[in-house]
Amino acid sequence: MPRQFTFSLQGLLRAYLGSLLVLVLVTAGLSLAWALVWQQSSQASLRLNGLLVEAQAVRGDLYRQMKEITRLGEAPSRDAYWRRLYRIDEHFYLMRQYADTDATLEAIGRMEEAYELIGVVLNRLAYTANQAPDERRIDELLNPAYDRWMTGDFEMAYDDLNELVADRRQTLQARLDRWLALAPWVSAVPLILAGLMVWRVSRRFRRGFTQPLESLVQGTDALGQGQLDHRVPEQGVAEIRYLARTLNRMARELEASRRELVERERQAALGALVPVIAHNIRNPLAGIRANAQLLDAEATSAEVLETGADIMEATDRLERWLAALLAYLHPLRLDPAAQSLDAVLEAAVAALGPRPDTQGVTIRRQGEDVRLNLDGALLEQALHGLMSNALEASPAGGRVDITLASDERVVRVHIDDQGPGMRIEPDPDARGPLPTTKKRGTGLGIPFAYKVVQAHGGQLRFEDRDGGGTRVTMILPRSGGASA
Asked: Is residue 461 classed as helix, strand or coil in its secondary structure?
C-alpha cells in the first residue's frame, strides 16, 4: 500500500526550504569556523612577530646605548643616549601589549628586570658625563668580559622569550596543520549533506507530488476517453488527494448519470418501438390467420399451396424484421483493428449474393484503397444495408457506384444509385425504424448504419443527386475515431 502523506504541498515546499536553510547554515558555520581559526592564528602570529620585533629592538638599542656611553661628552651622543632610553621604554610597553599569556608577560618582566640592572650602571655614568669621565668605569664597560657579565641575565631572558615565541609558533603551526588536514573532509561535509538532502527531498517530492500528479493526469485522460469506471489513486500531498477525491466523485456521478441517461434513452426507444413492433407483428399475423382460415376442408390443392406460400413469406418477413430489430437494439462493442477498407467493401458487395444480376443492376467500385482502424464486421454489415437499399432503389439496367475518396484527415465512401430518390430525410437521432415500402425492408438498416458510423467517430449523410438518384456518403476519420 503506498504511503499516505499527511502534509500539504505547502508543507512539502516548507520542508524543502528548511532543508536548504539547514544546508546553508551548516556551510556558513563551517566557513565561519575556518575563518575564525584562520583569523585567530593570523592575529596570534602577528602578535608574536610584533613581540619579537620589539624584543630585538630593545636588545639593539641596549647595545647601542652601551656604546654611546663612551661618547657622552659630545652633545649629539648625549642626546641620542636619552632618546634611546625613552625608545626602549616604548618597546617594552609595546611588548606588553603584544603579550597574550602569563608566560609571555613573565619573560618580558625578566627582560625588564635585567635591563633595569644594566640601566642603573649606564645612568650613573650618564649623570657624571658633564664632570670628568670615569675612565676606569668606561674601560670596565668596554671590557668584553664585563660586558658579558653585566648583560648575561638580559641575554638569558631574551633567549627565554625567543624560545617561548618559537614554542607558540610551533603550536599555532600544528593547529593550522590539523585544520589543513581536515579541510578536504570538512569541505566535503556540505556536499555530502547537500546530496542527502537533495535525494531525500526529491524522493519525497516525487512520491508526494510528481507521481500522484501523473496518476491524476492519466486518470483525467481515461475519463476523457469515456472510461468512467476508472479511479485515480487518492495518494500524495493533501492538494493532490483532494483533486483525486473530487475527480473520482465526478466520475462516479458521471457514470451514474450515464447509466440513468442510457436507461432513459432505452425506455424512450422502447416506447417509440412498441407501436412499430405491434404494427409489424400484427400485419403478418393477420395475414397468417386469414390464410389459415382459407385452409378448410373444401380448399383445393392449388389453394393450399398458394396459401402455404403466403404464410411462409409472412413468417420469413416477420423473422427478418425481428432479427434486424435485435441487431439494432443490441449495444455495440467495437473491436477495432487496422484493416483494408476496400476489403470491407468487397465483403459487403459479396454479401448481396446474386441479387444484382437478378435485378439487372451493375455495381461498380472505384478509388484507391486505404487502411483504417475499424471494426470490419460491423462496418461490413452497415455497408451491406446501405448497398442493399441502393440496389433495391435502382431500376433494371441501372448502376450503383461505390467510390473511395480520401484526404489527410478523413476517408469518404460514396454510394450512388439511380433510383427515384428518398422520400424522407433520415434523422441520425431517430430512436426507431424508418418507414419503408420495400418488400424485404425492415426500416432499421439506416438507423443501424448511423449507429455503427457514429461509434467509429464518423458521419453519415444523404443527399439527392443532380439528374436523379441518391448519394449516401460515409465519412470516417483516418485515425483515433473508433471508440468502445
From this structure: strand
418501438: which residue's cell?
Answer: 273
Residue 431: what pLDDT?
46
> Any bridge partners for residue 416, and if so which?
401, 471
Residue 436: strand, helix, or coil: coil
> In the β-sheet with 410-416, what is the strand arrangement from edge to edge?
362-366, 399-406, 410-416, 470-477, 459-464
- Using CA atoms, how far apart are residues 108 and 119, in angstroms rounded to an integer? 16
| Residue-level pLDDT at 412 | 92
Calpha distance 105→351 (Å, rounded): 121
> Cα-flanking dihedrals φ and ψ of residue 468, to 5°?
105, 150
Q: Give dist(CA 443, CA 178) in Å, integer.
A: 100
* Percentage of the chain lying above the pLDDT 70 cut: 70
* Cell numbers found for residue 438: 420495400
> What DSSP letter does each residue of 39-96 carry, written as one string?
HHHHHHHHHHHHHHHHHHHHHHHHHHHHHHGGGTTSHHHHHHHHHHHHHHHHHHHHHH
Higher pLDDT, 269 or 61: 61
What is the rounded distance in angstroms from the CA atom of residue 224 to the CA atom of residue 251?
Answer: 10
CA neighbor of 29 nearest in space, from 199, 193, 202: 193
* Percent of the chain whose pLDDT exceeds 90: 3
All three cell numbers of 187: 569541505
The answer to whether 364 touches 393, Cβ cutoff 8 Å, is no
Evaluate if pTM is beyond 0.85: no
Residues in contact with 334: Cβ distance below 8 Å, sequence separation at least 6, in sequence order: 375, 378, 455, 456, 482, 483, 484
Whether 93 and 115 have beta carbons less than 8 Å apart is answered as no
CB 209 within 8 A of CB 240: yes
**Quick one: 404 exposed, middle or buried, by C-beta within 10 A (0-12, 13-18, 19+)?**
middle
Q: What is the mean pLDDT of residues 181-198?
A: 77
As a whole number, the mean pLDDT across the chain is 75
Q: Supply the pLDDT for residue 133.
A: 47
Q: Report the pLDDT value the prediction gives residue 411, as an integer from 0 to 100.
A: 92
pLDDT in tens, 285-333: 666 666 666 555 455 656 655 666 666 665 655 555 555 555 555 566 7
- DSSP string of 90-140, one letter each residue: HHHHHHHHH--SHHHHHHHHHHHHHHHHHHHHHHHHHHTTTS---HHHHHH
